[in-house]
Amino acid sequence: MTPIDHLRIDENRLWQSLMDLAQIGATPKGGVCRIALTDEDKAGRDQVVQWFRDAGLQVRVDEVGNVFGRRPGTDPQARAVATGSHIDTQPTGGKFDGNYGVLAGLEVMRTLNSHGIQTVAPLEVAFWMNEEGTRFTPVMMGSGAFAGIFGADHIRSQQDGAGITVGAELARIGYLGDVACGDVPGGAFAAYFEAHIEQGPVLEAYDKPIGIVSGALGQQWYDVTVTGMDAHAGPTPMDLRHDAMLAAARMVDAVNRIALDQAPHGRGTVGHLQVLPNSRNVIPGQVKFSVDFRNLSQTGLDAMDAAMRTEFARLAAQCQCEVAIDQVVRFAPCIFHPDCVASVRGAADTLGYDHMEVVSGAGHDAVYVHSVAPTAMIFVPCKDGISHNEIEDAKSEHLAAGCNVLLHAMLAHAGVA
Length: 417
Prior knowledge:
The protein is an alpha+beta fold. The protein is 35% helix and 21% strand. Strand 3 (81-85), helix 3 and strand 4 (123-127) form a beta-alpha-beta unit. This is Zn-dependent hydrolase. Keywords: Hydrolase.
């Protein structure tokens, strides 16, 4: 092993930073409510920016409120190796989702400072604006603008439920920057790594401290409307009904079957359902529901889409109803860069951490950054696989392990002077 192989982050410092940030927007049940571009988000941003500056990082803010802290390298021409995530939360969010990735990046910088280690390439840590999409849509707003998926003007014009725009709130809290989206000193990132809690139960179930994330599931969301006819529950015979609820129930079951046919990476969920007129003695005349399909391949997603349309049409006719399907979200499957994935695996091996390959079932900023820079992710377990919940929890030793893997993966790309 080289002297650098023995380098480790400060576990207690990382944990304390997470706990300190969690006090901003803390909820009575031990979670965090720090929704994008609120006063709580401003306070959280101010704290992290202060930590960046205390670590000697050069801070810049872009035109949609993404924040970057840069640690210069010895080669001014080299492109930066970056990491990051987000610090906005769900209304009843936890301490670790997103926050861990940002503060793990900061801990990498602090560790290098503590040991007097200089890299050849610059290092950067970012926190992206409005990853959660709770107050403003779309989700992963800041990283999407950085990657050119969304225009900056479009993002700044988005409104919340009260009609307040992203641009107005960025200006109000002091984070409407003047750096163009995607403009990185020296050129696009040479590599990007994102550390994150898994937000699922796999790593804990297999007792693995590190997940080597090979990619992220593509997502296709739909709004479905089934239309039948309202009718009295008593006088209307069963064979003469146009029961939208019966058709919808069979369609919900079909979503489950379609996903199972695409094992192991197929996912199918109906999470929202609205029944009209929603009266106990009226046969429902209309049902609206959501469908969320996910898969690791576009071919798989296309097959799920086709199966859904065929099966929904058949079930609607069977129940003497009509069905309309509107696709509202589409994220292509993401396969992370093999060199970056190999760096994560190599770091875990060097450090002696047990690991397994996993795919991300959730969307992350890394999915958008992947389109403009070689990218990989590092997962660590979270208790019972629970996230987006105030009881979200993770072990300090697992968080430290993921941060150590992040440190060594970044050094593998940045080089040590």
